[in-house]
């Protein structure tokens, strides 16, 4: 890998880091993914706003997905982040919801349930 590629990858990683820290809940998804729908439905059911980043609408979806794999250990979508930390994918999110753990996670942090800052759209 040349340094130009590494620099570009680093820029995308920084942008992802900024993005996942702008909103309380960030879901990286794809429109046609049923697991993504499941994850979004969980947050809608508990009244928690979220920011959705549809990989298919990005200019560099493969690069973003590869970096998400490096960050989270999985390349599948959705990749769900709460307070900047990955809680897993769609099945993980549904399981956390079913056990009550998701609401505990959301209540345990400083940002009140249902509140979310809105940042700019990603540049990648």
Automatic annotation (TrEMBL):
- Do the record's keywords include Cell wall biogenesis/degradation? no
> Which GO biological process categories is it annotated with?
cellular response to oxidative stress
* InterPro entries named in the record: GLR_AS, Glutaredoxin, Glutaredoxin_euk/vir, Glutaredoxin_subgr, Thioredoxin-like_sf
Pfam families reported in the protein's UniProt record: Glutaredoxin
Gene Ontology MF terms in the entry: glutathione disulfide oxidoreductase activity
Q: What does this protein do?
A: Has a glutathione-disulfide oxidoreductase activity in the presence of NADPH and glutathione reductase. Reduces low molecular weight disulfides and proteins.
What name does this protein carry?
Glutaredoxin-2, mitochondrial
Q: Which organism is it from?
A: Folsomia candida
């Amino acid at each position: 890998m040349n340094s130009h590629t590494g620099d570009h990858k680093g820029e995308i990683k920084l942008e992802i880091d900024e993005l996942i820290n702008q909103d309380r809940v960030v879901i990286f998804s794809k429109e046609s993914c049923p697991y993504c729908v499941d994850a979004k439905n969980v947050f809608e059911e508990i009244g928690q706003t979220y920011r959705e980043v549809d990989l298919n609408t990005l200019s560099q979806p493969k690069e973003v997905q590869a970096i998400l794999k490096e960050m989270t250990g999985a390349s599948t979508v959705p990749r769900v982040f709460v307070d900047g930390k990955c809680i897993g994918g769609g099945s993980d999110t549904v399981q956390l919801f079913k056990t009550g753990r998701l609401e505990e996670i959301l209540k345990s942090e400083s940002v009140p349930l249902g509140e979310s800052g809105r940042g700019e759209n990603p540049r990648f």
